[in-house]
Amino acid sequence: MTLMFDISRPLVTGVPTWPGDTPFSYEVSWTKEQSGSVNVGKLTMSIHTGTHIDAPFHFDNEGRKVMELDLELYIGLARVIEISGTSSIGAEELKAYELDGITRLLIRTNSWTNPNEFPTDITYLRDDAGPYLAEKGIRLIGVDVPSVDPLDSKVLAAHHTLHANDIHILEGIDLANIALGDYELIALPLPLVEADGSPVRAVLSPLK
Ligand SMILES: Nc1ccccc1C(=O)C[C@H](N)C(=O)O
Ligand SMILES: [Zn+2]
Ligand SMILES: [Zn+2]
């Protein structure tokens, strides 16, 4: 039996976006009747909608763009852990978890409680999370919230410290129905050459 768990948030009209950011829209801009053969869709969205990855260019003008990222980090063994009921996560909380040999870590914070609304308060990563995770060999961090920083942060300390420690960022995954443990993750970004991030279809498969 091949099981695959979809941990992506559906992209649909009305999906929550960052306050002030571009609303998501899909429309058939050229109908089958008009074209004579096919329906042709048009997509308008902020890249930071739903389940997506950030490229360093998102928070650093000199940073790498999507096509320059390490593709192999978005496929492979990932561990899903839960750290909930805390307003932030740093080395202290992370120390409780066995992370040896783990490259990709997905954290269920359970702090985005209503998926139909943009959250007002989320569990974020503190400055010492990046260095601690890097020391453990983590290269990709995934969270079930729209940001690794506080929603009102302008300095984006977690984004910067994760990047400085060579850790790639995956945001907005949906881990609500996923049992904790190890999986094969696939969350490939689109080949957007100039982009600051990319929507991803993120899935977890049980290990064989
Ligand atoms: N889209 C935005 C609009 C305004 C201010 C921030 C954002 C963000 O996307 C930041 C967030 N940390 C993110 O990486 O998704
Ligand atoms: Zn983002
Ligand atoms: Zn981000």
TrEMBL record:
Metabolic or biological pathway, per its Swiss-Prot or TrEMBL entry: Amino-acid degradation; L-tryptophan degradation via kynurenine pathway; L-kynurenine from L-tryptophan: step 2/2
Gene3D superfamilies membership: Putative cyclase
Binding site for Zn(2+) 1: 48, 52, 54, 171
Listed EC numbers: 3.5.1.9
Residues the record marks as active site: 58
Family indicated by similarity: Belongs to the Cyclase 1 superfamily. KynB family.
Protein name: Kynurenine formamidase
Organism: Paenibacillus violae
